[in-house]
């Protein structure tokens, strides 16, 4: 079992969390129509729903927020964010927005149109949603190793470059509007993308004249994995690795609520294409606000500029990835199946193997998430067929190749004892796994249904 990596910080402020009974939790889940997004945070003991915006800010970030310049135009915080992005990513143009999906809403219409194909190593939920809303078609081409949850492969998040070139040849380069590289690859289990794969994908894209953008939410975690696992990078800094990664793309979108460790914020970066940047600026003003605040308060910009650097600190990253590895080690010892090796921000339970009697149409990933809440007040979410939704053309339920239950770990929030409780709860659920029933949807919206859908358990 992996030893726990001690926190490289002291705890200065604490927030009480409430213990509930099993009966209370069962009733709360029923009242929420069996949708874990509908549970009040006060009724959650350990919240692993997402690592997005749920991290703990540092003393430097809190101090920076007190210096926040709330000017409508030309605030100092924008200049600090701009300087940080130019330094870390070596991108000339920077546009703040209020979060990652806002970055997609602003950038995607400049690159995608009706009927175009959008290829990715794997689209995450909001990315897929924005592609669908534009009338384009999302295509996932992750490597086959990602679908084998039991075996080790260092870069399960990679794009399958053989399939990529074949798909472009068959579809026609003019029919492909965009290639998105998600780092780390969330839907594949938080798995990293290698530098060689970034380079190879970029070579193919440039051969056919197709722009590449990076979904950069977890850029520092991906750089850490490259440093640890890829030959030739052990002696390079996280920022040096990041600069090379981003040199293989034309632009990036970022939910800064992940590796920049802020509670709200996002970014669009454009490497050197002034024409593309002007289109981004033009859409930012009606959608997000003036270009130097982009939907954010000045204090948020200050925290973001600091967090971009804090997320790249080696001691922090060793601790961050170490927490996830510790939980994975506990689960492996108890025979709990998960995507191996663990990802950078989460452990992805293999719900298909955990609950083999539940078909994809009854949502094993969501089912296991509900059981974990009932068992111990632990909130998490499905990354599988439930999240995938329905085919926009046929209305048929899409089948995910992986049925995951994601345990996403907030940054600088939980300690060793919390992970021990998570492992014990899953061990208890495993003992009664064969008795667990799936769910059916009783109501759903047309897009991104998993946030608000209503369900009921099958009898």
From TrEMBL:
Key word Lyase present: yes
EC number: 4.1.99.1
Cofactor: pyridoxal 5'-phosphate
Catalytic function, reaction form: L-tryptophan + H2O = indole + pyruvate + NH4(+)
Stretches that traverse the bilayer: none
Complex and partners: Homotetramer.
Protein name listed in UniProt: Tryptophanase
Organism field: Propionigenium maris DSM 9537
Lineage: Bacteria, Fusobacteriati, Fusobacteriota, Fusobacteriia, Fusobacteriales
Gene that encodes the chain: tnaA
